[in-house]
Amino acid sequence: MKHAVKILILVILISACRQMHSDSKIPFAEGREIVTENGMVVSAHPEASRIGISVLQKGGNAVDAAVAVQFALAVCYPEAGNIGGGGFMVLRQSDGSKHVLDFREKAPLAAKRDMYLDEDGNPSGNLSTDTHLASGVPGTVDGVTRIHSLYGRLDFRDVIQPAITLAEKGFPLPEDQAASLNRNRENFISRNRARPAFVKDSLWKGGDILRQPELAKTLKRIRKYGRDGFYSGLTAQLIVNEMQRGNGIITVQDLENYSSVFREPLQAGYRNYSLSTVPPPSGGGIILVQLLGMIESSPVGEWGFHSAKAVHLVAEAERRAFADRARYSGDPDFVRVPVRELTGREYLKSRMSDFNEKRATPSADISAGDPLPAENEQTTHYSVADHHGNAVAVTTTLNNTFGSSIVVEGAGFLLNNEMDDFSIKPGAPNMYGLTGGDANAVEPGKRMLSSMTPVIVEKEGKLFLVAGSPGGSTIPTTVFQVIINVVDYNMKITEAVDAGRFHHQWLPDQISIEANTIDSLTLKKLEKMGHEFRTRSSIGSVNAIQILPDGRMAGGPDKRGFNTACGY
Ligand code: DON
Questions:
Q1: Residue 374 pLDDT more than 50?
Q2: Distance from the alpha carbon of residue 503 to the mean position of ligand 1, in angstroms
Q3: CA–CA separation, 200 vs 210, rounded Å?
Q4: Residue 524 class from Cβ within 10 Å (0-12 exposed, 13-18 middle, 19+ buried)?
Q5: Per-residue model confidence as pLDDT tens digits over 452-474
Q6: Residue 399 Cα, ligand 1 centroid: separation in angstroms?
Q7: Is 379 a catalytic residue?
Q8: Which stretch of 97-101, 213-217, 387-391, 427-431 has the lowest confidence by average pLDDT?
Q9: Nearest residue CA, atom 6 of ligand 1?
């Protein structure tokens, strides 16, 4: 026992870039690059990661910690953390069983196929992004209370309490986050009748304390009544009042009817690894499996990281996978999505049969969707692993940064603008430039197609990697790159998540790329092959955990953002 304690202390001391925290009973490591033995939480915000680790240290398992992190992010990371949005969870239990929980939002019952079109049948302004009509029926509270009641160990009240305290007492804003609230100030003011907690008289500065008393009260109702504390009673009434104030259509019935769904995990092999990810209504898992399947027969590792050959192959695979997404993917409760066919080995082989190793294949020209500004996007992913071998990967979102910027008056939380993820008109690009057709058309009670791709990877039956990312359409290609960075390029997890990224999504026919990702000679070579590049600010923001051969856990918080790993 003494020996184990010594090893633990040593591990904590040699971990780079981290500070010691001893405000809880057991000290824990925190930072960007840490390796620990007993538990790890990697999320977009230090407050949420600390809360997650404190729950593990109290004897909670990965599910308890994940639920605590979800509520904490709703307080400290309103950009994307939420109770007014939705998401997807992949859970691996210590016995190796896997579960996928879909807590994606649903279209309200009064939704109509053409609800975002004007008289001429064209997308009408910003209805699907900036108004009360932009919100799907939130799924988060149903999802996390459900997963907790089935797989959590601690009392629910103990799991939600840290978020309540955080909302009541407040927390110091990191500088970047103060800036992000300031950038959205006008939206908060113009889209809300009462002034939300996110606005104060002067602009926010780093270190200012953000308190959210109304949100604390809503969380207390959830603490007391569980799911019903959100979907019925006062919170439901406040949501419906908010809808009526702004001509929204979510009703009491929509809220009562909402239910998260367990779905069969989408599983696939890649080299000697096996992965479990999400099926529709996210198209992300299919894309991830397709990309891995389309490159598996090529020794990309030998070709070299970001070599012209490897980038060309990946871009061509991405182009094909996204073309499939636009055609086939949607809510499986409404349309048949041929998941097995799309991810079958033979199909993927035939899909690449027209791949020309010397030339880019032009994408069909449907419509020129404007490429999207990266700073307009925010979702969040967190990964949790405990010492029992349980692991949780959750990607959750309000859609873009702060969702619709509409705060439910009296309830203190932001509403999502997820309805924009539907194909509001065939061929018209959404805010991520994604197009679609019938399979993803708006229908009452339907879930909008997502790109979220939480994933758990195993090697020889043992937990190996927990990962996921925000980034709209770039999510599956980001997760894909992290997996091949680890598997094919032998990078350690922090290198794998920090490495520069690129992305092709069929339309527009171009490779978006982070600055300084590929050297200029290679870029020229690829341009000669017919590829067009567009530099953008950042792609994705991964929060991953890798299990090392000796069983220890290495945190992989992305350098993009204020992601933080906490472990002990
Ligand atoms: O579900 C989806 O695919 C989108 N609503 C995700 C949005 C997103 O990732 C924004 N973030 N960076």
A1: no
A2: 15
A3: 10
A4: exposed
A5: 999 999 999 999 999 999 999 99
A6: 5
A7: yes
A8: 427-431
A9: 472
Question: How far apart are alpha carbons 386 and 465 in whole angstroms?
Answer: 13
Tell me the per-residue pLDDT of 286-326, one tens digit each, with 9 for 90 and over: 999 999 999 999 999 999 999 999 999 999 999 999 999 98
pLDDT at residue number 5: 52
Sign of the C-alpha dihedral computed for residues 110, 142, 330 and 383 taken in this order: positive
Q: Where in the chain is the domain with CATH 1.10.246.130?
A: 263-375+452-552
Determine if ligand 1 sits within 6 Å of the CB of residue 134: no
Measured in Å, residue 107 CA sits from the centre of ligand 1 at 16
Q: Confirm or reject: Cβ of 417 under 6 Å from ligand 1.
A: no
| d(C-alpha 287, C-alpha 477), whole Å | 8
- Nearest atom, ligand 1, residue 541 CA: 12
Burial of residue 182 (CB within 10 Å: 0-12, 13-18, 19+) is middle
Architecture category of domain 263-375+452-552 in CATH: Orthogonal Bundle (1.10)
Choice among 36, 129, 343, 379 that is catalytic: 379
Cα(345) to centroid(ligand 1), Å: 28
Protein residue whose Cα sits closest to atom 2 of ligand 1 = 450
The finding on whether 421 has its CB within 6 A of some atom of ligand 1 is yes
Nearest to 568 by CA among 66, 157, 96, 7: 7
Chain-wide mean pLDDT for the chain? 93
- Joined tokens for residue 248: 């929204």
Strand duo 511-514 + 533-536: pairing: parallel
Sheet holding 455-459, edge to edge: 35-36, 553-557, 543-547, 462-467, 455-459, 273-277, 266-270
- Distances in Å between the Cα of 184 and the Cα atoms of 78, 167, 201, 320, 541 are 12, 20, 14, 36, 20
